[in-house]
Recover the amino acids of this structure.
């Protein structure tokens, strides 16, 4: 056994070695995730000149996976959805934070969020929603430079062992198919 002990040795079942190092034990468990250092060292991420939320509206709705276009904001499918039907509501203007958006942008984002909930519920029978925004890279925003609100449909049976055991999320509908279904249902005035 070497005289140098690191996290790997502790992870392999030798926690008694902890007494040989400086530090005060506490109640916290540590999850060592060195692969995440890239998110810290690479800085805030996407800049305006390569922002996907600025680029998507320049494409056709099908190519950009855009469900609905408003005057100041639009609805787009999330490329990395938590559930089928997970959409993002984004202003066209490249603005990072909620308090930097205009009152008109906020009103349209709110209106599109309500409409998205109605349409998603209508076509998929969702029983609830997670709605929210991560503001800034330190708060978990994947695209921190461009404001976007998540609308995630939920069902009582939408979670299983796959994400935990296999790090895999089962998605019952393809993104393009879901975009087409949402866009078609959006045009039905009963849901607006």
């Amino acid at each position: 056994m070497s005289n140098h002990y690191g996290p790997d040795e502790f992870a392999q079942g030798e926690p008694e070695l902890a007494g040989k190092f400086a530090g005060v034990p506490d109640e916290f468990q540590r999850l060592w995730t060195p692969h995440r250092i890239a998110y810290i060292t690479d800085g805030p991420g996407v800049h305006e000149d390569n922002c996907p939320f600025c680029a998507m509206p320049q494409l056709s709705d099908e190519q950009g996976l855009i469900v609905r276009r408003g005057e100041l904001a639009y609805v787009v499918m999330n490329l990395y959805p938590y559930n089928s039907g997970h959409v993002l509501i984004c202003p066209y203007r490249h603005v990072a934070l909620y308090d930097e958006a205009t009152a008109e942008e906020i009103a349209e984002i709110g209106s599109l969020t309500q409409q998205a909930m109605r349409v998603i519920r209508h076509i998929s029978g969702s029983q609830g929603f997670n709605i929210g925004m991560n503001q800034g890279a330190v708060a978990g925003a994947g695209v921190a430079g461009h404001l976007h609100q998540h609308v995630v449909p939920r069902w009582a049976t939408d979670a299983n062992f796959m994400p935990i055991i296999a790090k895999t999320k089962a998605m019952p509908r393809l993104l393009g198919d879901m975009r087409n279904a949402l866009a078609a249902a959006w045009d039905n005035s009963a849901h607006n």
In short: The chain has two domains: 7-41, 48-191. The beta strands are 66-69, 73-77, 87-91, 128-132, 149-154. The helical segments are 7-11, 37-41, 52-55, 61-64, 103-124, 162-165, 175-186. The two ends are 68 Å apart (CA to CA).
